[in-house]
Amino acid sequence: MHPLLGDDLARLPELLDETRAYAVRLLAGMDDRPVARTPVRRPPSPLPLVGSGAKGAMEAFAERWEPGFAASAGPRYLGFVTGGATPASLAGDWLTGVLDQNPTSGIDSTAPDLEREAVAWLRELFGLPPEHEGTFVSGATMSNAAGLAIGREWLGERRGIPVAEQGAAALGPVAVLSGSPHSSVGKALSVLGLGRSAMRRVDLLPGREAVDPARLAAALEELGGRPAIVVANAGTVNTVDFDDLRAIIALRERYPFWLHVDAAFGAFAALSPGHAHLVDGLGEADSVCVDLHKWLNVPYSSAVQFTRRRDLQARVFANSAAAYLGPVGDDPVHLTPENSRRLHAVPAWFALAAYGREGHAEIVRRDVALAGLLGERIAALPAYRLLAPVRLNVVCFTLADAPERAGELVNAIIESGEAFLTPTVHDGVPALRAAFSNWRTTEADVERVADLLKRLAP
């Protein structure tokens, strides 16, 4: 054994204690760390020839890299849709690394069974029926890609074409219909060989990001009975708008289509009594995307992909020519693009076991209330203008008199170190969006952000 490895093994308990102490200092200083930083690009240093051992590596990281990291785990990081890591999920994540299980096969451990239990809990959390079977993946992008891959196989099934064997080209042109598709959907269509050009945007309801069901029906009618994929949104990025899932499902009586619902964070509306109606019908979708490192507040990377057609999923992702992986069945190795991966389920399992449905419902209810509070504060500031009602957990707004300067405001917020909001464009207007999904955020944080916006107002 290399001497540095031998030394680290001999003092492993001490190294873990030092790492724990370092992590505690980072968490304790989260409120004082700049929420975001303007990146200063560093050229890569040469690969160490000898190395410095684990302690030396930690010291080098603390000096060279950690000071430039954002407080994205903190309560005023309101960019993208970023959760933090609850104490239980963080503990689960550490143990995931310690145990280092590859859960894709049930040959050597019960890791896949833990994933199945976590999936069953999540299915219940979101109110999905038992026929929706789920699999852990690395994020919403992979969840959307997996759901659309199953939908692609369904299209082939309707036409007697085994797409997994013959390839996407055998299908010919495919129509994918959506009102406000997330950018990851286009990426998935590219990867799946359907092409970004397969996406056909359908007109939206006036002043909304939700699809107009009548226009969707017209688009399906134009296909002349040809099967299609419909991507519905349960929570758009800019304004958290929801397609009317019941109205879309009703169209199945007249038109054949695979319904994939991108509910990356909108699925959590099911935990709020005042908003659960927004996801009514989710359980009747053919595939569903939910991103867990958003509102479940588990560390990156963690998402789940649900589908009612596990048989088609296995047809797409089966490792049928690898005898050492066992027969094609319900093991994750036959259900996702990855043959080997991290045991994503443990942090989610820890979070659900620790806080249950009610604990996570409290996070959702609090974040929704805080988003509403910030919306009220912004609406009261003459320098700003809300671009949409605060429907759930995102506040979308712009500068009232100079929306073209929204990017300057984002930079000023970053430079302050007080908060982070992401820039966007909504209905052609440059804007900012504040997304609430962190378990730590409080009213005091909202007031701090509101005061910052007031100070930075032109």
Q: What top-tier CATH class of the largest domain fits best?
A: Alpha Beta
CATH architecture of the largest domain: 3-Layer(aba) Sandwich
Query: Quick one: biggest sheet?
Result: 7 strands, mixed
Alpha carbon gyration radius = 23 Å
Helix and strand element order? HHHHHEHHEHEHEHEEHEHHEEHEEH
Explain the overall architecture.
- With 458 residues, the protein is an alpha/beta fold.
- It folds into two domains: 3-71; 91-351, Type I PLP-dependent aspartate aminotransferase-like (Major domain) (Aspartate Aminotransferase, domain 2, 3-Layer(aba) Sandwich).
- Helix content is 41%, strand content 12%.
- The protein has helices spanning 3-10, 12-28, 53-64, 87-99, 111-125, 140-159, 163-166, 183-191, 213-222, 245-250, 292-295, 310-317, 345-379, 406-416, 443-456; strands at residues 133-137, 176-178, 199-201, 228-233, 257-262, 287-291, 303-307, 384-386, 394-399, 422-426, 429-435.
- A seven-stranded mixed beta sheet has the order 1-7-6-5-4-2-3, sandwiched between helices. It has a four-stranded antiparallel beta sheet with strand order 8-9-11-10.
- Strand 8 and strand 9 form a beta hairpin.
- The model has no long low-confidence stretch (mean pLDDT 95).
